[in-house]
Structure formats: structure tokens, C-alpha cells
Amino acid sequence: MDHSMHGTTMDMGDMPMRCKMSMVWNTEPHGICLVFPFLQIQRSTSSLIFWLSFLALLSVFFEWSRLYAGSLDRQLRSTLRGAGGNLAAAGAAVGTSTPRSGQARRPSSALGDASEEALLGGRSRQAWGSVRLPVSIQTRRSLLYTLNLAISFYLMLIIMTYNAQCIGAVLFGAFVGHFIFQRNFDLAAGGGEDDGKGLSCH
């Protein structure tokens, strides 16, 4: 009897691997899919090094994006506070000036309305110590926020693989990124809204 498989050999290393899932701590990274099936750690050492480096660099990038978003908010806050201070000084000068004969003094509320219009090119609105930002600036802030949130969620899903190598790569990247990009320490109380927030659930 002639069998079609006779005389042929099958190399199991050439067969595609199925995504491996584990709900307990494990130290075997080969076969793990990094959330998506096409992002799979293959059996080769080069594949392992590549994907672990990818996770570490992604953690570093996350720390940089946090720093960039925070610095953008601090710069914007400083600009708005400076504009508010200049407008307050101008209002005091106008309020103390003596009106001409027959000319009524301008109410302070009118100056307040003008101050609101002057902030950010007249496109903002002050209310209860806050400023309504223009759509262009708020869109940029929201995009950065969404990017940071997406990266944070993705890295949390990587942590949920329970794999020692993958978790170690994420934590190593977080350490390097925090060491490089969070070295400047703000002495002001409440210097940033995201201080202390790292790779954690939102």
C-alpha cells in the first residue's frame, strides 16, 4: 500500500503557531500574541528580542507622551495666567482713572467682558476660575489624552498575559522612560494633574 505521506518529513517549526493564552504566571513567551494575532512571538530568539524591545520602547514612548501632554498644559496655563494678569493690571489702571466732565465712569463689568474676549484672541470664556479653550487647542489636548489612554490600556493588556518576559519588558521601559523624561521635579504644589499616574487602569 502506497501512502501519500510516505517518504516525506514534516517540520513542525514551519507550521504557524496558535496564540497561546494563560491565566497564571508563566515564563514561556513563545506563542504569545501581543493582543493581536499578527503580533505573535515566534519560536526564534530574534522574534523574542524584537517584540520585547517593542514593548520596552512603547513604555518609554508612553512616558514621553505623558511629559509632553503635561508640559503643553503647563505652558498653556502659564500663558493664560500671564494674559489674565496683564488684563487685571489694565483694568486697575482704567478703574482708577478720572472720568472727563460729563462722561460717566465705565462699569467694571464691561471691562470684565472685554477681558474674557481678549483671552486667546477673544475666543475663550472665563467662568469660575476656568477658561473655555478654543476648539483647535482642545482638540489637540483631547488627541494627546486619547493616545495616552490607548497606550496605557494596550500595555495593561500585555500585563494580563501573565508572562514574566513581557511584564519585565514593560516595566523596564517604564523605568527608563520615567528616569529620562520625569527627572525635572516641579516644586510647585499641584504642579501637574497627572503626577504619579503611570501604567495603570484609568
From TrEMBL:
GO terms for molecular function: copper ion transmembrane transporter activity. It comes from the Eukaryota. It is a multi-pass membrane protein. The chain crosses the membrane at residues 48-69. It holds the Pfam family Ctr. Its main location: membrane. Coiled coil: none annotated. The keyword Ion transport applies. Keywords: Copper, Copper transport, Ion transport, Membrane, Transmembrane, Transmembrane helix, Transport. GO terms for cellular component: membrane. It is found in: Membrane. Signal peptide: none annotated. Residues 91-113 are annotated as: Disordered. Belongs to the copper transporter (Ctr) (TC 1.A.56) family. SLC31A subfamily. This is Copper transport protein. It comes from Leucosporidium creatinivorum.
